[in-house]
Automatic annotation (TrEMBL):
Signal peptide interval: none
Residue ranges of every copy of the Acetyl-coenzyme A synthetase N-terminal domain listed in the record: 41-97
Name of protein: AMP-dependent synthetase/ligase domain-containing protein
UniProt-recorded Gene Ontology molecular function terms: acetoacetate-CoA ligase activity
Residue ranges of every copy of the AMP-dependent synthetase/ligase domain listed in the record: 118-495
Length: 686
């Protein structure tokens, strides 16, 4: 781990923890439950040691629109890997909860409180920030009603799947709400995913209808998607559940001509099936019933189809937005759709590259749209910081209304924390380094408005999430925690409402192997982390399957990245660090690949300085055995760095790369390193 003094630097302090909604929630719980909680740590401890009490308080104090009643919150004696049922007897509907607000005296009744007809619900912004379209709560409710009624007329019923291959837009949002209003299951794929990757997903879930954008714009390029629609239709031919395709217009005034595509019609044509019926109808389903299918990345195999429950996601989003982020109806959130609209907050739907037409346009949009909560990735910070000259957001525009920037998807380096507060954003802005994801439709660790933030960490385990750090060397039946400060596996040892209800078309074996095969009756998330002994923040050290282990010394790739980011910001653009262990190897060797900045040379002097820095910051036994230059580092289509395929390739495996990779051709470069001795031996003889 890097220098403890750096980690202990306090970067941000909440203005008044006692003025937060979380503090009010805690005081109400104290009165009702005869508790004596005083601070965030007390609240968290109660939430994980008394899960029924805590989640019932969330259900009662932060209600969702529902009908029915429950006799118990959850069976706390049930094994975690049995996927316990929560709030049995309660029925709800996701779309109804997003589009309306529960009546204060009777949560079975839907009202427009916090979601007035004329107020703006969402704002669609296209790449370049020139196409901006507002949509009021009344409009989004009517759009959802018409599309949902059209789907009903076409035979869509509870349990049917409807998929989109589409951008982040009002049309996509409307499909999502219309499907879930009927009790159906929504699923989405990005337009820039390869056809094979899309089909790997859709062939598994067999959707009744597939809604597809007719054009896409990304990074300044305009792409006709009609050929892709044809490829998807051909790939799904023969699956009887698939009834048709609907093209959604990228430009509202000129939809593409899809008359030549089999089984495809325009959105306008499909909507005529509703006969203009704008009456909203919502089928309330069991709390545990599914509403969405999401996917694992599929970077090394067929993607898993992860099914989430409506009730669990609704309740958890109430918790995260209100108790962790202190959200109100006056906020405006960019790239945080469900959290925002569920709680009456305006959301900004941004589609495209945030770097077009230049690096400042998106930042100016944040100011112009009065964004309070912004969701980005570490790659976004890196691009701004490494530009020539560097882009300083607080110098570009007025960020006085911005109160939080959330970062997820990759490990956020300590250097990026320092950059954020020392150079980039105003000191009042909270940097929320969050971790969780698709698998659990929630965060495991994240932010709070009741504690300070220190460099490099994620502030807290989330309420209701009993996060622990387990020894990776322990056997399945003897899972045990490590000493505070030591690194290990991120696990969750108590049930939570957003555990997936199942994997689609899986009797249970894939689900069990994904989360419960590693340690008995414990959710294993796959991240390598540590808990700081002083500030009690969690430090994300990389993926557990990417943990480096030369000669028994275990450390995370993120520790290497932290060192390189801090010491070589002007020379190294990016890096990927993996372990190599081929069948013939008796020990693991660490390989480091460096992507140089334009105009900067890869030299043996740089290699020496990089090794010296890693030895100093991480440890001498953590210095890579091999350091090479690379022309490209593999990433997913959302620019998340991918280590595992590189690790497998250099360890002698031949893999079939997934279409979820944005640049899978670059993997060919790494095959030569499976015979690394042939590359370094001639030099060693000189």
């Amino acid at each position: 781990m890097a220098d403890s003094q750096l980690q202990m630097r306090k970067l941000w302090q909440p203005a008044d923890p006692k003025a937060t909604q979380a503090y009010s929630f805690m005081q109400n719980a104290n009165r009702k439950r005869s508790r004596s909680m005083e601070n965030w740590d007390d609240l968290h401890a109660w939430s994980v040691d008394n899960i029924s009490e805590f989640w019932e308080e969330v259900f009662q104090q932060l209600p969702i629109i529902h009908s029915g009643s429950y006799s118990e919150v959850v069976d706390e004696t049930a094994r975690m890997d049995s996927i316990p049922t929560w709030f049995k007897g309660v029925k709800t509907n996701l779309a109804e909860n997003i589009l309306y607000w529960p009546d204060a005296s009777d949560p079975s009744e839907a009202t427009t409180t916090r979601k007035r007809d004329g107020a703006i619900a969402c704002t669609e912004v296209r790449e370049g920030c020139t196409e901006i379209r507002h949509c009021t709560w009344k409009e989004i409710r009517e759009r959802t009603a018409v599309l949902s009624n059209a789907m009903r007329a076409r035979g869509v019923r509870k349990g049917d799947r409807v998929a989109v291959v589409a951008s982040n837009s009002i049309d996509t949002l409307t499909v999502f709400y219309a499907v879930t209003a009927l009790g159906g299951l929504f699923s989405s794929s990005s337009t820039d995913m390869g056809t094979k990757g899309i089909l790997d997903r859709l062939r598994q879930i067999k959707p009744k209808f597939v809604f597809v954008d007719d054009w896409a714009v990304y990074n300044g390029k305009t792409i006709d998607l009609c050929p892709k629609i044809g490829e998807i239709e051909a790939g799904l031919r023969g699956i009887e559940e698939v009834e048709g395709f609907v093209s959604m217009p990228r430009w509202q005034d000129k939809p593409a001509d899809v008359s030549g595509l089999a089984k495809c019609e325009t959105l306008a044509s499909f909507l005529r099936s509703a006969n203009g019926d704008k009456t909203p109808r919502f089928e309330r389903i069991e709390f545990r019933d599914p509403f969405i299918i999401v996917y694992s990345s599929g970077t090394t195999g067929m993607p898993k189809c992860i099914v989430h429950s409506a009730g669990g996601v609704l309740l958890n989003n109430r918790k995260e937005a209100i108790l962790h982020r202190d959200s109100t109806a006056l906020d405006a959130e960019a790239n945080c759709v469900l959290d925002a609209m569920l709680n009456g907050t305006r959301t900004i739907l941004f589609d495209g590259s945030p770097f077009q037409p230049d690096l400042e346009a998106f930042l100016k949009l944040v100011s112009d749209q009065h964004v309070t909560d912004l969701g980005v990735s570490p790659r976004y910070f890196q691009t701004l910081a490494t530009a020539k000259p560097p882009v300083i957001p607080r110098d570009v525009t007025d960020l006085s209304r911005l109160r939080r920037v959330s970062s997820t998807g990759m490990v956020l380096s300590e250097a990026q924390f320092e950059y954020f507060y020392d150079h980039a954003f105003p000191p009042h802005v909270q940097l929320a380094n969050i971790s969780g994801g698709t698998d659990l439709a929630a965060c495991l660790t994240g932010d709070t408005m009741m504690k300070p933030l220190y460099t490099g960490g994620t502030m807290t385990a989330m309420l209701g999430m009993k996060v622990e750090v387990f020894d990776q060397e322990a056997g399945r039946m003897e899972g045990r925690t490590v000493l505070v400060g030591e690194a290990g596996e991120l696990v969750c040892t108590r049930p939570f409402p957003t555990m997936p209800v199942m994997f689609w078309d899986d009797p249970g074996e894939k689900y069990f192997n994904a989360y419960f095969a590693r340690f008995d009756n414990v959710w294993t998330h796959g991240d390598f982390i540590s808990l700081h002994p002083q500030n009690k923040q969690f430090y994300m050290l990389g993926r557990a399957d990417g943990v480096l282990n030369p000669s028994g010394v275990r450390f995370g790739s993120a520790e290497v990245y932290n060192s390189l980011d801090a010491n070589f910001p002007d020379e190294i653009q990016d890096s990927v660090c993996v372990g190599q262990r081929r069948p013939q190897d008796t020990d693991e060797s660490v390989m480091l690949f460096l992507l140089m900045k334009p105009g900067k040379a890869f030299t043996q002097d740089l290699v020496k300085r990089a090794k010296d820095a890693i030895a100093r910051d991480v440890g001498r036994r953590c210095v890579p055995k091999y350091v090479f230059e690379t022309p490209e580092i593999p990433t997913t289509i959302n620019l998340k760095k991918v280590e595992l395929p590189v690790k497998q390739i250099v360890s002698g495996k031949t893999i079939k790369p997934s279409d979820t990779l944005a640049n899978k051709a670059c993997l060919e470069f790494y095959y030569q390193f499976s015979k690394v001795e042939d590359l370094v031996q001639p030099r060693s003889k000189l």
